[in-house]
C-alpha cells in the first residue's frame, strides 16, 4: 500500500502535468536562457543535461519530493546492504558487489559476497592470462584467436554491446556472440570460425535456457566433429550458477566460472558472464570497465538526490511517462561503437520495468516502464526520427554524445556531433507556420504551393530530450554509462513501487513453446485453436502435413 505521503507527492506531480502547457520547453528557455547550469549535473566523466525537458524548478521540486516519499534512497541502501530487494524471488540484487574493489564489504544471507566475487575474479584473471600467454591452447596446439560466447538475454547483450564498443585493432582475441536458436545465426558464424583456434564459452545463469543449450549442443558437435571428442573439453568453458548442469555437459570444474542468484541476468556483465570481454579486450580493459561502474556506484550511493545522476534520469522518466503520458523513449548514441547499447537497454529497462503489479502484489496505479528503442545516430535520422519530430505523441530521446573520437577523421566527428546537437535542438525548437511560410517565400515558391505545404513542413517543437555527454568512449567511461542506467532502473523500481529484478513475463511463451514443439516434430497433441491452423500450414509447407 502506497503511503499517504507518496500518494500526495504523486498527486502534486500529476497536477503539474495537467496544467496547460505543462510539456512546453521553449518558454522555459525563453524565460531562462541559462537553464543549462541549473538542469545539468556531472558525476565522474558523465555530464547529464536535462535542460531540454519541460522540467522547471517547480517540477523538479515535486519530483524530488516524490523520490523522498517513495524512499528511493532507502531502496538503494537496502540493495547495497544485500537485502532481498527482489521480493518475489526473495533474493538480493547485489551487482554492486561485482565491481567493488577487494576489501569492500558486501554480504547477503550471511554469506561473504565480496570474498566470493574476488575469488571468481582471480580465477577468471588466471584463465585469461593462460589463454593470452599461450599456456592454454587448442587441441592441435594452436593459440586461441577467437572466443565464441553462447548465451542469450543478459548472458549475451551486455558483453556483446561492450565488446563492440571497446574493440580496438590491438584486441587480443576476436569475440563472437551466438544467441538466437535460429541456426542461421550459427551457420553464419561457423563459416568464419576455425574450430582449432576457437574457445567456446557457454554463458547461462541457469544452464537450462533452451536457446543456449541447443546452440551449445550444435557447437559442441562441431568441435567434436572437427577435432575429435577428446579435444572438446579443452575448447569449452562455462559461465553459470548451475554447477551440476555444467558438469553434466562435460565442462571441467576448473573451467566453470560461477556467480550467484543475486546477480540478475541483465546486471551480469560484470560477473563471470563478462569473461568473453576479458578474453577479447584484455584483463586491463575489463578491470577498467568494472572500475568505471564502481565510480558510478560510489556517486549513486553518496550523492544527494538533487545531484544524483541515476535518480535524476529516473525522475525525468517519471515526469515524461506519468505526468505527461509519453509512453515510449528512444536512445540514440551518436557513436557507432555503441550500436548495441539500445539493445542492451531494451532488456535492462523493459525486462526490469515492464510490470503491471506492484512489489506488494497490487495492481500498479500508474503507467510503468515505457517502450525503449533506438539506433545509433545519424542512422536513426534517416529512419524513425520523422515520427519523433512530427508524429502525434512526443517520444523523449536520450542523446548520448562522445566528445573525442578514437579515429583521425575530425571532420566526420564534427559532423556526427553537429547532427546530434541539431536533432535535440530541432525537437525542442520546432519550426512554426510563420517561419515555414517565410522560408518558402524566400525560396521563390508561389502562394498556392506555400498554402499546400505549410502544415506538412511545420515542426511542433517542445519535444523533450536528455543529453548524456562523455569526454571519450573507453572501458572506464562505458562502465560509468552502463551503471548509470542500471541505477536508474533501481530508482524507477522504488518510484513505481514495482520489483525491477524479476521477469515473470518471459515464462508463458517458454511454456507454450514446450507444448507446441512436439506438434512440429510431427507428434500428436492437442493444440490451441489459435496455433493449430498455423502448425498445420507449416507442416504442409514442409511436405509433412
Ligand atoms: O529472458 C529471460 C531470461 O531469464 C533473462 O532474464 C536472462 O538474461 C536470459 O533469459 C538468459 O538466461 P540464462 O542466463 O539463465 O540462460
Characterise this structure.
- This protein has 22 helices and 13 strands.
- It is an alpha/beta fold and 545 residues long.
- It folds into 3 domains: 4-83 and 290-429 and 463-502, 3-Layer(aba) Sandwich (Rossmann fold); 110-281, Rossmann fold (3-Layer(aba) Sandwich), CATH 3.40.50.10490; 506-541.
- It has a 6-stranded mixed β-sheet with strand order 1-2-13-12-10-11, sandwiched between helices. A 5-stranded parallel β-sheet has the order 6-5-7-8-9, with helices on both faces.
- β3 (107-108) and β4 form a beta hairpin.
- α1 packs antiparallel against α4 (57-69), α12 packs across α13 (283-302) and α13 (283-302) packs parallel to α20 (475-496).
- The protein starts with a helix and ends with a helix.
- 6-O-phosphono-beta-D-fructofuranose binds at residues 152-155, 204-206, 209, 212, 265-266, 351, 503, 506.
Features of this protein?
Rossmann fold; binds 6-O-phosphono-beta-D-fructofuranose; alpha/beta; globular; 3 domains; five-stranded parallel sheet; 545 residues
